Amino acid sequence: MHFTELIKTIKDRRESLRVTQESLAEISGVGLRTLKQFESGKGNPTLTTLQKLVDVLGMEVCLKS
């Protein structure tokens, strides 16, 4: 999955669950600015940050070679 697809998948999931960026940031422990940059394609989140976000959204990160 390309980075842009990853962003879209996470953003779509957040929106389908009707979770605001503010709520997701608070619940996941990720900074709001970090989340906004990620969703706009300007950020470069760590794997730990991605894990925090997807955990809250009921998703998982899977790395393939």
How would you sum up this structure, described in words?
- With 65 residues, the protein is mainly alpha-helical.
- The chain has a single domain (3-56), classed as lambda repressor-like DNA-binding domains (434 Repressor (Amino-terminal Domain), Orthogonal Bundle), CATH 1.10.260.40.
- Helices cover 62% and strands 0% of the residues.
- α2 (21-28) crosses α4 (47-56).
Outline the fold blueprint:
Blueprint: H1 3-16, H2 21-28, H3 32-39, H4 47-56
Report mean pLDDT, rounded to a whole number: 94
**What sort of overall outline do the alpha carbons produce when their principal axes are compared?**
globular
What is the CATH T-level topology?
A: 434 Repressor (Amino-terminal Domain)
CATH homologous superfamily assignment: lambda repressor-like DNA-binding domains
Beginning-to-end CA distance, first to last residue: 11 Å
The ordered H/E elements are: HHHH
CATH architecture field: Orthogonal Bundle
Number of DSSP E strands: 0
Instruction: Determine Rg (CA atoms, Å).
Output: 11 Å
Total helix count? 4
The helix fraction, in percent, is 55-70%
Q: Which structural class is indicated by helix and strand composition?
A: mainly alpha
**Which residues sit in consecutive blocks of at least 5 with pLDDT less than 50?**
none
The largest sheet, given as strand count, sense and whether it forms a barrel, is: none
Number of domains: 1
